[in-house]
Amino acid sequence: MPLADMPTLLAAHRAVGAFNFITLEVAEAIVAGAEAAETGVILQLSQNAIAFHGGLAPAASAALRLAEGARVDVAVHLDHATDEPLVDEALAVGIRSVMFDAAHLTDAENLERTAAVATRVHAAGAWIEAELGEIGGKGAHAPGVRTDVAEAVHFVRETGVDALAVAVGSEHAMRERSARLDDRLIAELAAAVPVPLVLHGSSGVADAGIDGAVRAGMRKINIGTHLNTVLTTAVRTELDRDPDAIDPRRWLTPGRAAVADEVRRLLDVISGRSAA
Ligand code: G3H
Ligand code: ZN
Question: Residue 134: which domain range?
Fold first, then answer.
């Protein structure tokens, strides 16, 4: 399939799963899981993952080629980019969807920089997601912090972004799926904010919470840490079972298969095809 664009993908699904990858095998597993679920998916590459690889192009190229070779719609997204030149580099290598994350700035600076980046991204014909900055003096996804509906509407109007990450009770990098989301706030935001809402830190949300958030109006569900847990657990199990294994394929094969199975299962939850 040709590389999917974000508006088409969002229009075709009640919500879209967006999975972070660090290694090639996880990117392959995300595509395989989406093919098994027969649904579209977003392959996300974060600025952190790019730093691990020492540059954007190799991992981005792999993701773009995987997307083009997939039997379902696959979009490739630059996630949590804080460096503006990295956004421009992503557009130059063919990525059509980016998240510019200026949450470390003041609200006023966040709005100003995000608006400037949005203009460049739109000039390139691409799609941009942003995140509201420090809310109540804390990170947007710190426990207890919530996005204000009026502030979200103002931010989207002034920046012109295409999607907005909002703080509704999730938190990044949770290992337990115990976050409690504010579905009422999600519904209020979805009714007032004229662009798709994005749930970050979805690893910490149980299946029922993800289903509830989607029913309330979340359109893009970001999952990263949970796939790391699934991969590493499977690899550890295999290495414990076969301590003499040397060829990485011996332990990457079950690791990749476990991630693909979990992506398929989660996409069924996100799409509403399985009861959570
Ligand atoms: O942007 C990526 C997501 O928010 C992933 O968060 O690793 O907590 O699932 P997570
Ligand atoms: Zn995130």
Answer: 6-271
Residue 7: count of CB within 10 angstroms of its CB? 14
Residue 257 falls inside a structural domain: yes
pTM: 0.96
CATH code of the domain covering residue 68: 3.20.20.70
Ligand with smallest separation from the Cα of 45: 1
Three-state secondary structure call for residue 207: helix
Q: Ligand 1: which of 16, 20, 78 to mutate, judged by most atoms within 8 Å of the beta carbon?
A: 20
pLDDT tens-digit readout, 127-154: 999 998 544 445 556 666 889 999 999 9
Interface pTM, i.e. ipTM: 0.99
As given in the structure block, the two tokens for residue 140 are 């947007």
Mutate to test the pocket of ligand 1, among 168, 174, 203 (most ligand atoms within 8 A of CB): 203
Cα 13 to its chain centre, rounded Å, is: 15
Residue 100 within a domain: yes
